[in-house]
């Protein structure tokens, strides 16, 4: 399958892995790229440009296929503005295939990255934002519906509505995310105007992902109704309903300070919970796609099956006419 996304990144299949804090490391990134997709490492889990460079070179030692880096530009207690710029500088020097940006609509790094041949994509949750990043010179847009895990825009528009509206409004290539988990969702996204998909939660339940087996087995058992939107007074997020989300909802109801809410969903707590397999120990920002994850498989099996089902689905529907 050739699309504008496969051509943009020089990959076999139009499937990209989204950034997941602590999860998307060098091993997982390389496995996805080796399987024909575009793997990803998350810059925000490192505290310096040198540490990110080490991770990038670890990926290069595992695969000669293209891969990308996720950089989420949000205020952080761990990462300074200077470190964020170091991340971009290192990505330019190492010539990664793509940087997936989310958060702030920054532009200072674009000339440097384009001069190095690095493509830049930005995740958005609204048509107005898609049009803006096209004007700013990004190479592709990632359209994220409210189904996504992480931080969906508080407009709360579903992928099935947002995606075709964006496709009608911009000319740059489009990736769909939010509910993207298998071949059927990929076929739907292509029909709605996407050139490829971004999956994140699905790759967490993969053999190459390092997290504790308790977390992977938990994901397989969860349903699409087991997530909720929370952190409405700070930065809206979607996560699995557990004791941490209950605590955050109570804090917001009682008018807690934003700093107290941020502490409740600390990234350090997430890292510990992922290591120990504690499903109640952190806020797990998984998307509604968990309801369609039924097995733990290799990244190659996930990608191969996604492509086979997508192609079969599209052929079957075309035969109706």
Describe it for me?
With 321 residues, the protein is an alpha/beta fold. The chain has two domains: 4-210 and 294-315, TIM Barrel (Alpha-Beta Barrel), CATH 3.20.20.70; 213-288, no CATH class. Helices cover 43% and strands 15% of the residues. It has helices spanning 4-9, 26-34, 49-62, 81-94, 110-115, 127-136, 159-167, 183-191, 201-204, 213-221, 243-253, 258-264, 267-276, 299-319; strands at 15-17, 39-42, 67-73, 98-103, 119-124, 140-144, 174-177, 196-199, 227-230, 237-240. The strands form two sheets. Strands 1-8-7-6-5-4-3-2 form an eight-stranded parallel β-sheet. It has a two-stranded antiparallel ribbon with strand order 9-10. Helix 6 links the parallel strand 5 (119-124) and strand 6. Helix 2 (26-34) runs parallel beside helix 3, helix 3 packs parallel to helix 4 (81-94) and helix 8 (183-191) packs across helix 14. It is globular. The two termini are 21 Å apart. The mean pLDDT is 95.
* Envelope shape: globular
Beta-strand proportion: 5-15%
What top-tier CATH class of the largest domain fits best? Alpha Beta
Strand order of the largest sheet: 1-8-7-6-5-4-3-2
Order of helices and strands: HEHEHEHEHEHEHEHEHHEEHHHH
How is the CATH topology of the largest domain named?
Answer: TIM Barrel
> How many angstroms does the end-to-end distance come to?
21 Å
User: Counting H and I runs of at least 4 residues, what is the number of helices?
Assistant: 14
Task: Tell me the name of the CATH homologous superfamily of the largest domain.
Answer: Aldolase class I
The residue-averaged pLDDT reads 95
- Low-pLDDT segments, ≥5 res: none
Biggest sheet features:
8 strands, parallel
What is the domain tally?
2
Structural class: alpha/beta
Rg calculated over all Cα atoms? 18 Å
- Got a strand count? 10
CATH architecture of the largest domain: Alpha-Beta Barrel
